[in-house]
């Protein structure tokens, strides 16, 4: 690492610790004001930052990134406000326990190229809510929009006279600087590819990483396929398919297969059944088992051009039938508006297909079920190794938390031990706190005998 870069990072970290030492003594009201300001800054500048992200990264589209910036900032603040995050946060009279929250200190956040501004905002809001400073290490392909996002947030924090350097961004990121940051902070949040997350877990610091998404969507026999298809299309096409919780494969009852496909094609999907045509898509879409970097976050027309396919200009989505082989690369994650389709004979086979696909990539992340039969929902849910399941909704538009479901709003989705992650939860401010518990002996509490305990 260059000496100047190392000195810059040392300065950043020293400034962060100095700012956090002051911020740690802020009241709950002051912490909340700062967290709100960070979210409102993104909300108010959503379109400008969306335009900057698309121009710099070449991924996604402005309209959806704008909506993502707005909805996520609104949802996260709605979740955060009113919750205690400093000092005594709970008095449990029943168990004679007092719970006290303390800041983690300096948070390091490694952010992706796919959703730079939104991810930074989520991490910053959660860090500030707990009285922490935060240093962002952005993906090099999104360094300009990331630095601008932090600058806009800091302008709002300055209005509140928050400590300077509370939120900082490495403006010239590199692998070396990111690795050094990982080894220097008090807690690390890593949102990105498997290699980067593995590096975070090897940093020697407490880390929260995320796994790859490969969302399996199972259709039951008792749903309105037109409605279900509309939801899947909306979610799969959102921001040109770069969201990790977006539907990746549709697993369809064999008895209703054509009916489901018709529902998709009637709403703008282009269907590929011929495996010679599917092979063209496979060859263009994947490199070494992963989505071709040139096609991540691109629209259907760009994908079709690369694959040499004649696809209608109005097509929103490509649905391609799998060849059914266990080694079909279409079982993997596709970070663009492409869905693979599978047919199943019974629920047992549907679960088996989903499990096989998850073993390729995406274990621990998300599943979607379109069904109105609770027994089937519970059976599928209990059988699949995923941390979250959306019912009758689009994965990318639901499991990251909305105002109409119970998922915690976030930009970082843990995949649990299934996905080699330290948490299966939606990352939030509680993951950036030290929680202290004070326990008192309850002398008047009845103590059971050994015979009663072992009965």
From TrEMBL:
CDD domains: ALDH_F20_ACDH. GO terms for molecular function: oxidoreductase activity, acting on the aldehyde or oxo group of donors, NAD or NADP as acceptor. Pfam families: Aldedh (PF00171). Keywords: Oxidoreductase. InterPro entries: Ald_DH/histidinol_DH, Ald_DH_C, Ald_DH_N, Aldehyde_DH_dom. Residues 12-267 form the Aldehyde dehydrogenase domain. PANTHER family: ALDEHYDE DEHYDROGENASE-RELATED. This is Succinate-semialdehyde dehydrogenase. It comes from Arenicella chitinivorans.
């Amino acid at each position: 690492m260059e000496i100047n870069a190392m000195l810059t990072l040392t300065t950043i970290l020293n400034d962060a610790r100095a700012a956090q030492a002051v911020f740690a003594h802020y009241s709950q009201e002051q912490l909340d004001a700062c967290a709100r300001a960070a979210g409102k800054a993104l909300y108010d500048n959503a379109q400008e930052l969306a335009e900057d992200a698309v121009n710099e990264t070449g991924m996604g589209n402005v309209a959806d990134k704008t909506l993502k910036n707005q909805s996520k900032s609104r949802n996260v603040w709605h979740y955060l406000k009113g919750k205690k995050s400093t000092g005594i946060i709970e008095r449990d009279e029943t168990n004679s326990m007092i719970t006290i929250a303390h800041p983690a200190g300096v948070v390091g956040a490694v952010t992706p190229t796919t959703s730079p501004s939104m991810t930074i905002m989520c991490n910053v809001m959660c860090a500030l809510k707990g009285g922490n400073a935060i240093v962002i290490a952005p993906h090099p392909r999104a360094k300009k929009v990331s630095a601008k996002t932090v600058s806009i947030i800091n302008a709002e924090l300055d209005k509140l006279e928050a400590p300077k350097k509370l939120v900082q961004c490495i403006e010239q990121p590199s692998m070396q600087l990111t690795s050094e940051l990982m080894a220097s902070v008090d807690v690390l949040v890593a949102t990105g590819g498997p290699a980067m997350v593995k590096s975070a877990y090897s940093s020697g610091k407490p880390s929260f990483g995320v796994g790859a998404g490969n969302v399996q969507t199972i259709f039951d026999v008792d749903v309105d396929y037109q409605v279900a298809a509309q939801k899947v299309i909306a979610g799969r096409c959102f921001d040109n398919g770069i969201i990790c919780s977006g539907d990746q494969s549709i697993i369809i009852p064999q008895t209703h297969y054509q009916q489901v496909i018709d529902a998709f094609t009637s709403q703008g999907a282009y269907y590929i059944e011929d495996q010679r045509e599917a092979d063209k898509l496979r060859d263009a879409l994947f490199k070494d088992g992963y989505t071709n970097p040139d096609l991540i976050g691109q629209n259907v027309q760009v994908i079709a051009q690369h694959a040499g396919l004649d696809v209608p200009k109005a097509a929103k989505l490509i649905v391609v039938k799998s060849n059914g082989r266990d080694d079909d690369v279409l079982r993997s994650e596709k970070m663009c508006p492409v869905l693979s389709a599978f047919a199943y004979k019974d629920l047992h086979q549907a679960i088996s297909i989903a499990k096989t696909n998850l073993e390729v990539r995406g274990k621990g992340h998300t599943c979607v079920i379109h069904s109105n039969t609770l027994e089937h929902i519970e059976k599928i849910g209990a059988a699949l190794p995923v941390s979250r399941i959306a019912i009758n909704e689009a994965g990318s538009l639901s499991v990251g938390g909305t105002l109409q479901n119970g998922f915690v709003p976030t930009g970082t989705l843990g995949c649990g031990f299934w996905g080699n992650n330290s948490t299966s939860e939606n990352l939030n401010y509680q993951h950036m706190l030290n929680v202290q518990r004070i326990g008192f002996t309850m002398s008047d509490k009845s103590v059971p005998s050994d015979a009663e305990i072992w009965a």
